[in-house]
Amino acid sequence: xxxxxxxxxxxxxxxxxxxxxxxxxxxxxxxxxxxxxxxxxxxxxxxxxxxxxxxxxxxxxxxxxxxxxxxxxxxxxxxxxxxxxxxxxxxxxxxxxxxxxxxxxxxxxxxxxxxxxxxxxxxxxxxxxxxxxxxxxxxxxxxxxxxxxxxxxxxxxxxxxxxxxxxxxxxxxxxxxxxxxxxxxxxxxxxxxxxxxxxxxxxxxxxxxxxxxxxxxxxxxxxxxxxxxxxxxxxxxxxxxxxxxxxxxxxxxxxxxxxxxxxxxxxxxxxxxxxxxxxxxxxxxxxxxxxxxxxxxxxxxxxxxxxxxxxxxxxxxxxxxxxxxxxxxxxxxxxx
Length: 336
What we know:
Blueprint: H1 9-25, E1 29-30, H2 31-38, H3 42-52, E2 71-72, H4 74-80, E3 82-83, E4 85-87, H5 99-113, H6 121-134, H7 150-162, E5 164-171, E6 177-190, E7 193-200, E8 205-210, E9 214-223, H8 226-229, E10 245-252, E11 265-272, E12 281-293, H9 296-305, E13 311-314, H10 316-335
Antiparallel strand pairs: 1-3, 2-4, 5-6, 5-9, 6-7, 7-8, 10-12, 10-13, 11-12
C-alpha cells in the first residue's frame, strides 16, 4: 500500500495526536519504521517531528520557554534519521496507574495467561509490558501460581470440545472416594476454587465437582448421550435439590454477595429481643436469609469460609453440630 499524505487539518491533527504517544512508547525508532506504521511518507514524518519539537505548554510565564516544549535528540534525527524524544511535556503529570495498581493488573493477566483457552499469550505479555512502562513507579515483581494444574483444565476442555465423557475418582465432602463418569459441560471458577460442571451418569443429574478433589482423570471414547449433552446448566454454580437441608443464617447485609451462589431466599432484617428492648427491634445492618446445603459437612465449610461473618440461627440441630465442631477445633488450643 502506497503512502498517502493527510490532506485535511483534522487528519493532520489526528496523525499528530497518535504520533506523540507512539514516540513516547518507542524510545528510539527509525523514521522509515514510523512512516510504515502510519502509512505516510518519511518526509511527512520528519515534518511532523519538527512541528512537535516546537510544541508544548505555555508554562508559568506563558512564553513557551525551552523547558515547556518537546525536544528530541537532533544529532540522531539529522545524521541517522532516528527519532529519540529527550523531553516530554505534561505527559508525566497525566493520571497513571500506581505501582500497586499496575502490579495487581499484571498479576491478573498472569493468571489469565495460564488458562488453556487464552492462546494469544503474546498479546497478554505485550499488555503487561505496557502496564509496567506506564505505571507511575516500577510495579512489584509478582508471580501468580495456579492452584489447579493447567493440564487438568486442558484435559477437561478437550473432552468438552470432543463431546466425550470423562472418568475420574472424586473425593466427596464426606471423605469418600467415588468413581464418577461425567459428560463435561464447562469449567468455572469461584473465588480461588475451580469447578467442573456436567451430567453425572452415576446420579443421573447435573453435578458440580471441585477440581482439587478430582484424581485419576481419564478421557473416554464414549460419546456424550443426546440427553446429557443437551442439558441446560443453571446460572448459579450451586443448584439446590429437594434433599438439601434448609438453613437460616444471620449476617451483615453488606455480606449477602458472599452467599449469592447458594441462592439465599426469604431475606429480611434481623431482629433482637432483650430486657431493655421488650419490643422486637431491627438489628442495625444485619439480615437473615434462608439457603439450602447438601449436608451438615457443607454447612461447616460455609461457616469456615465466612468465619466471624455468618451465624447459624436455625434449625437447632444445625446450630448444635456447628457449635460442637467449632468447640472440637478450639479444644487443642485451650489445652496448650
